Amino acid sequence: MNQPVLFEERPTDNGMRIGIATLNAPQSLNGLSLEMARSLDQRLSAWADDPRVAVVVLQGAGDKAFCAGGDLQSLYRSMQSSPKGDAWGNRYAREFFEVEYRLDYRIHTYPKPVLCWGHGFVMGGGIGLMMGASHRVVDETSRLAMPEISIGLFPDVGGSWLLSRMPGNTGLFLALTGAQLNASDAFFAGLADFHLRAQDWPRLLDHLVQQPWAGGAGVIGDVEKPAAFAPRSINDGLLRQVLHGMQPAETLAPGPLKQHAFQINNLCAGTNLEEIHENIAALAEHDDPWLARAARTMLAGSPGTARLAFTLLMRLRQRSLADVFRAEYVAALHASAHGDFQEGIRALLIDKDKRPRWNPATIEAASKEWVLKFFEEPWPQGQPHPLQDLGAA
Description:
Keywords: Hydrolase
Enzyme class: hydrolase
Protein name: 3-hydroxyisobutyryl-CoA hydrolase
CATH topology: 2-enoyl-CoA Hydratase, Chain A, domain 1
Largest sheet: 6 strands, mixed
Organism: Bordetella genomosp. 9
Strand content: 5-15%
CATH architecture: Alpha-Beta Complex
GO molecular function, one term: 3-hydroxyisobutyryl-CoA hydrolase activity
Distance between the termini: 40 Å
Strand order of the largest sheet: 1-2-3-5-7-9
Order of helices and strands: EEHEEHHEEHEEHHHEHEEEHHHHHHHH
Mean pLDDT: 95
CATH superfamily: 2-enoyl-CoA Hydratase, Chain A, domain 1
Number of domains: 1
């Protein structure tokens, strides 16, 4: 049986090591399972404490995806076997979202440089892994998206934090439409830091072993340095230098999100979701295929997801990343109990009829009152939040 994540420690010329984690489920586009998330979190924790590991690399097996999302099949089975409407009754969902969110938060707050190669499809759970990395790389194959509107969930894994920090109202547009971004738009949206050709990735890894990496506790190779020595800043700079040196000379042409940013900002302005939804819907027959596809995806998607994503963005705009993960955890448990998430997976992946029966069926029915239940803590009274310790000193 294949290991869900492959781990390698590649020795460098000066005695340090590069920790490489490879998501190893190419047949499912490296969909993030609970086993993968747990294994990756444990190894990242160990590498964080290992003074000989200078840099961590995240990549996906195969040439089609870094990670195209979470393990929806297992979540679907758990929803089938759990009490309907009981947001605390699905033990698998409780564990899956807690482990996944803790992993994502660990990457955001990691004490060492994390280099992530966002090749191919990077969606949903893949965005959660990539967006916290300190050095995020895209290439000509990259296609990034938060497509939860089509499965009845919402842009989670810290998506409420990420989308609210994108230029203007583009984050809201992406939440409501699930529109895909190319490498150029990944830069515009703040999802990428560096651009390489896909064929150059192996050569980049070879260059990494040649750098004079600094070690923890003031160590460079086998040489002790003064206590004031700062290995993190040196290693960040070394990694940045290597990546800059390998970027193609040609400039990326503006992607569709940037090209249409002014129009999108106007369409998504204000706090009335019904009006914003109507504005985007009017693009369904637009001459630009990217805008038209985005509008049609929204119209075919879950109205409940649209309301929940919108409300999370409005409520959490000024909250810390840890607070966002805590709020999303509550919302994800309710989403696992209230129908649309299960129905969306059924229509897309199980029966594959692509005819989901959403409930509520319209954006008007998915009202401000309807969405309030997604913010009610579902665990027994007096029990602390399972992610209470995130962000604690």
